[in-house]
């Protein structure tokens, strides 16, 4: 930043998720923040507020001096922090704009501060049965509050934007769509490296937190309904950390008689994940609902076709890079799995399409759009203040 050069905006960021493993919204927060710092620090000042210490591998990428951290480790402590110290810091720093990338905005911000919130999905409305009771209660309370407070709202997809407009019609004019980008991932280590993970034959890949919304039980059942020849020659590889919902994966695999055909890897690092994406026959992500569906885009960036659902945002992200199915239909899913495994030419064509489709998305483009929205929100806030 040039010394003495005027700052257009001082922007406060709710960076609480940068202290956690970077999955989902945490990765979104990091990728957007990195682009802000890399592309816009000459024009704007960014301050990152975190509820606990952020790993040095993250803070170094964004520069330590931009961080203010606390020591709120438990969920309850973080919730208290978000409505006490967080707004206190933002007010004391006299930020021009506050951005909440996690569906939420703190109460008690100064009336002078413009506010933008990112809404990634409306799971609490469309598939509430797939959420923990506490998470459902928190989302149903805090998201409407944030949407009401916000000068503008960023939605990850047209599907999510439409959901916000339907659910909160009084605020429909606040909504702006900014698609996510493709995270820079390591190059594939090649098929031979899969042997270290115990993967010895072609495989279908599933990536996602193990929770009910991901529809893993139906995916397993669909795979079990394929021919014996397919189950002998192809594996289903499952990647993702434990979520909630009492999903007993071992029991589901046993119930479907897939003990020899499924490989469960749990959470993997990016260097392994990039290889898994690159070498997979296709990604299977038949979720019941997604606000965007980042693994779809990540797989497509490696030229890997995708089998996903025909609901919410997933067709919007996929484009022509794969096949969509009714996520409630086991028969339809089974047919699509067999088609993608047996039809090499189709799989190649869809993989080529996927690579092209993925180039439409970038974090740089997303950050540029977000900055424009921040500037618009600041003008809206100034108009509100001047009209009082």
Key terms:
388 residues, alpha/beta, 7-stranded parallel beta sheet, 6-stranded parallel beta sheet, elongated, disordered N terminus
Please specify the SSE layout and strand pairing.
Layout: E1 9-14, H1 25-40, E2 44-50, H2 56-62, E3 67-69, H3 75-83, H4 85-92, E4 97-100, E5 114-119, H5 123-126, H6 133-149, E6 152-155, H7 158-167, E7 175-177, E8 203-207, H8 216-224, H9 228-233, E9 235-239, H10 249-255, E10 262-266, H11 270-279, E11 282-285, H12 294-301, E12 306-309, H13 314-318, E13 322-325, H14 330-342, H15 344-358, H16 363-387
Parallel strand pairs: 1-2, 1-4, 2-3, 4-5, 5-6, 6-7, 8-9, 8-11, 9-10, 11-12, 12-13
Helix pairs in contact: 1-16, 8-14, 12-15
Structural class: alpha/beta
| Major β-sheet annotation | 7 strands, parallel
| End-to-end separation | 35 Å
Low-confidence runs:
1-5
Helical residues, percent: 40-55%
Write down the secondary-structure element order: EHEHEHHEEHHEHEEHHEHEHEHEHEHHH
Folded structure, characterized:
There is one protein chain. The chain is of the alpha/beta class and 388 residues long. The protein contains 16 helices and 13 strands. The protein has helices spanning 25-40, 56-62, 75-83, 85-92, 123-126, 133-149, 158-167, 216-224, 228-233, 249-255, 270-279, 294-301, 314-318, 330-342, 344-358, 363-387, and strands spanning 9-14, 44-50, 67-69, 97-100, 114-119, 152-155, 175-177, 203-207, 235-239, 262-266, 282-285, 306-309, 322-325. A 7-stranded parallel sheet has the order 3-2-1-4-5-6-7, with helices on both faces. The chain has a 6-stranded parallel sheet with strand order 10-9-8-11-12-13, sandwiched between helices. The chain is elongated and about 70 Å long.
